[in-house]
Design a protein that fits this description.
The protein contains twelve helices and twelve strands. With 372 residues, it is α/β, with parallel strands linked by helices. The strands form two sheets. A seven-stranded mixed beta sheet has the order 9-8-7-6-10-12-11. A hairpin with a 2-residue loop joins strand 6 and strand 7. The longest helix is centred in the last third of the chain and has 16 residues.
Length: 372
Amino acid sequence: MAELTGYYRWTDIWFYWHEAISAVSPEDGPKVKSALAHDALVDVGHPLHPGILPNGQSCLLFSSKQVDYLRYWLHAMEITKTRVPLPYSSCLLLPSELKTVSPVCFKTGGELRMANKVRLRNAQPNTRRLTFERVRNLYKRGTASWVAIDFEEWEHDHSVITELGVSAIHWEGSEEVTEDAHYMISATECRNGKYVADNRTNYDFGKSEVIPTTGFLQVLTDLFERLNTYGPTFLVFHDAHGDLKWGLTLEHIKAPVDSLSGCLPDYLPTAGMFLVDTSDLFATLLTDESFNRHKLEKMCDLLQIPNVGHLHNAGNDAHFTLKALQSMACGPPIDVQREQRWPQHLQSYDGLPLEISEEDEETDDDMGPQFR
């Protein structure tokens, strides 16, 4: 018979397991509860680390292997007289019942205690929350390519692409490899400045390369072919849903993105191309019920990304878009991350009431026709 594995809710283990054990062995029940105390779990000598299920219901979980190991450890260390029984089987959650699972570590018992409180008050399923946690889980695998792309168009004719910015990261074994690039047409041709800031010659992360307008396709083709050798590729944009955003531009230059999917996978595949939008992730992190998207500069400011400047240069925009993605993806699960980033703003259970003025919202009307 195959071994049955899965997950137990933290609340079932913490509140009820010791009671069931006490009914059989009154001496062992309190010892099991002591071993599961918040401060005990984060101690460096404890045999377990709690896991988190970011499944839209924000439940803290223990894996069945963790619980089983704790039973053996308590008995082997002669803390309990016998090997205490497993929790009742009806509270075991099978992997097939879960959307996705992502690990998390807590340094103190207070952090663990707060994480559980925050999750309990954000317990409603939400597709956006699930997407946020999937990005975290996929990024931390370290076996894919993540590439932020930004285009700048001529403000007087959106069919003319003036700049392409690329910022990418992939892993070669355990080594993290990053790269940044900025491509532009001749610095004297099709200059912006009336509706959109003109920062074409203010690239801050290397030397700009001048190419003809027909060269953007070859740059992207070579880039995607190379990154695909490292596994699946995640294309990262900031606000990919505007009228003149990634879709029309990539189609306009006939970029090789036929396999691009807007649906993130549950588990990291061996190949494929997937879309990630940092404006969606950030709106979810803010729990903005209106789901307003905000400018790249405002997002980076609230995420405390350092040295942001010379935006509306495609290379700089791509660089800071990827930095914002990394900041959110490398942080803790969404509720804990929000609590850590902006504790002074958490005034209600309904979300984060950050005061973001109307001019901070991402619109194309305030600066005339533009491509961002």
